[in-house]
Design a protein that fits this description.
It is a single chain. The protein contains 18 helices and 25 strands. By secondary structure, the protein is of the alpha+beta class. A hairpin with a 6-residue loop joins strand 3 and strand 4. Helix 9 packs antiparallel against helix 13, helix 11 crosses helix 18 and helix 17 packs antiparallel against helix 18. It is globular, with a radius of gyration of 25 Å. About 45% of the residues are buried.
């Protein structure tokens, strides 16, 4: 399953919600027009859960975490800190798509439930069929489903969407749906997708996340070259006014075909959603406090501690909340590009982790708000802890001798400067590791003893505010004779360079869901090392990790998924692909008081699509 920040409007183009299935997907009774059983016993159901029964039974009225009586109307204004946009196609690797377009303009076959480990329910598809052996999935479409131009959504549109995304869309789709072997249109409202093999447990559900595009619209258009021509979608909003690269407004459709369906009740309540682009976050913050936009997700601890004060905050005109969530926080860190010679040796990578002083950073820059990250699946039961035991140890024993012995003998913990010796001791440890990797200090510079080549690299940034985190790290490594340069580029150049892996080190967040699956290939599998645009930022290329990723994807039940994920987590951590940063299990949000939100926050946290404007 892919993951996304739940706060709408702050998602990346590729952070698309998906869901997993498992061999024991629950089959909830369905009373639609497609209740017939298939010859192999697959029954049409209204929803699928990864394990056990779906929470919401057939005929449910709405999700528990929304307000079904939320009024429609008003405008939600938000800011994007970036250098603009040049495309209305969020599914193509070329260009920079406008914020929000994939979320607001396009619907999917199924809709994700935010208060379950992993379940999906019918949206464009009113029911789903999948057999016990997971060899195929059938989607039965709603006769009422319509595109924004009034044309019906048919099985041919689903087939077209799958084919265009996997052949001309971002490489992510090709990898994500690689195990689909055949797509068959049974009739106008029924489509079947067959799989190459049945050990990939999540395919029936992640296929439900496909955004549905109109075949008739793209019939005489080139998919990757529509630029800023507003497309026809299937979602609740269409593109309204926009100023190229500077602002965009989405207009809610009064006649939106799915407005009364259970998974849409109480959601998408604003008449208009506006994004304005800012090139500087400090300017954006001041614009928010001046009333230029309504909502802000604060990612800066310093801002949260110092900038949200004054009369408007005191009298409740602007509200601040730190809303607790229970989603995995994933891994943020300095990511090594192991495609580069300087970072090919894991001992060198481990040594450099000792140059980052989290405790100093947290105290002096972040007002003590964060906790250190020690897992790629932090803030969840999927995170490895202590030493491996039980089933996790059984899994790892298969690879003894192929992975670091530390996997079995030493609990992973990111270096700390707590204690009397603090950073000095860490730098001493780093020096010992570098010497063991064949480095030595000559004339104050760390060089490879055999060749005399200096140990030097560049950190690529696009946020100037992050320099205050990077520069102390740079200075600490300078004490070891390591020359680190910092390159600040604009957001468009940064995106292009990251897509082409044209960097030594970047700061990156690697998000995770509560049900990891096919997207793990995109992060870690050797097949994605040279695929431009993949999210294998570190260039992980390890047959053991490939096998562990496959095991995660093929997990037959929740407990096995947890143990296999912990094993993968432990091997990744001991590969030292990142210098771990920090995490926070809260969404820090500020908003003007005409905005309202439901009393219940699901485990995935804040979701603006459930908010509304006070009449």
């Amino acid at each position: 399953m892919t993951t996304t920040r739940t706060v709408s409007g702050f998602t990346s183009v590729l952070s698309l919600l998906a869901v997993l299935a498992s061999p024991n997907i629950a089959l909830a009774a369905n009373t639609t027009a497609h209740t017939q059983d298939s010859a192999d016993g697959a029954q049409a159901v209204h929803g699928l859960a990864m394990h056990g029964e779906p929470k919401y039974a057939q005929g449910f009225k709405h999700f528990d975490y929304i307000n079904p009586e939320a009024p429609k109307g008003g405008t939600l204004s938000m800011a994007v800190v970036a250098n603009g946009f040049d495309s209305f196609n969020p599914f193509d690797i070329r260009g920079v798509a406008a914020a929000g377009i994939s979320n607001y303009v396009y619907d999917t076959l199924l809709e994700y439930s935010a208060d379950e480990p992993f379940s999906m329910y019918g949206l464009i598809a009113e029911s789903v069929e999948t057999p016990e052996d997971r060899s195929y999935v059938i989607f039965n479409l709603r006769p009422s489903a319509r595109f924004q131009d009034g044309e019906p959504i048919t099985a041919e549109d689903v087939k077209f969407s799958f084919e265009i995304l996997t052949t001309k869309g971002h490489p992510f789709y090709r990898n994500y749906y690689a195990e689909v072997s055949k797509v068959t249109v049974v009739n106008d409202l029924r489509i079947r997708l067959d799989f190459q093999q049945t050990s990939n447990r999540e395919l029936p559900l992640i296929l439900g996340q496909i955004p549905i595009l109109p075949a008739h619209y793209w019939e005489d258009r080139e998919f990757g070259k529509n630029g800023l021509t507003p497309p026809v979608g299937s979602g609740a909003y269409r593109i309204g006014d926009f100023e190229a690269g500077r602002s965009i407004v989405y207009e809610r459709l009064d006649d939106y075909w799915a407005r009364d369906i259970a998974v849409r009740k109480g959601r998408f309540n604003f008449d208009h959603i506006r994004y304005d682009y800012y090139t500087d976050d400090t300017v954006a913050l001041e614009a928010f406090k001046a009333g230029s936009f309504d909502f802000r997700l604060e990612t800066s601890a310093k801002n949260w501690a110092t900038a949200y004060s004054g009369d408007k905050f005191d009298d409740g005109t602007i509200i601040t909340e730190a809303i607790e969530h229970h989603r995995p926080t994933g891994m943020q860190g300095f990511v090594f590009n192991t495609r580069k010679d300087v970072f090919k040796d894991p001992i060198v990578r481990e040594a450099l982790t000792y140059g980052f002083d989290f405790e100093w950073t947290n105290k002096n820059l972040f007002y003590g708000q964060y906790a250190r990250t020690n897992s790629y699946f932090e803030n969840s039961e999927l995170a490895s802890t202590g030493l491996p035991s039980g089933r996790e140890l059984e899994i790892l024993e298969q690879y003894r001798g192929q992975v670091s012995e530390d996997v079995f003998t030493t609990p992973f913990k990111a270096p700390t400067t707590d204690g009397k010796r603090g950073l000095r001791q860490n730098l001493r440890t780093a020096m010992e590791l570098l010497r063991s990797a064949g480095y030595e200090v000559r004339d104050g510079k760390m060089v490879k003893a055999e060749t005399g080549k200096p140990l030097t690299f560049e950190i690529l940034l696009f946020q100037k505010t992050f320099e205050r985190v990077v520069l102390p790290f740079k200075n600490n490594l300078a004490k070891l004779g390591i020359d680190v340069s910092v390159r600040l580029v604009d957001s468009n150049q940064y995106v292009q360079r990251v897509r082409e892996f044209d960097y030594d080190m970047i700061t990156q967040s690697i998000g995770q869901s509560d049900s990891p699956g096919n997207e793990q290939r995109e992060y870690w599998d050797s097949s994605t090392v040279d695929a431009n645009g993949s999210r294998n930022y570190a260039g992980v290329n390890d047959p053991v990790i490939d096998q562990l990723v496959s095991l995660v994807i093929q997990a037959p039940d929740r407990e096995e998924l947890v143990q296999r994920t912990r094993a993968l987590d432990r091997v990744l951590l001991n590969g030292y692909y990142v210098v771990p940063h920090w995490h926070l299990a809260k969404d820090r949000v500020a908003y003007w008081n005409h905005l309202k939100h439901p009393k219940t926050t699901p485990k995935n946290g804040t979701d603006l699509d459930n908010w509304w404007a006070e009449p």
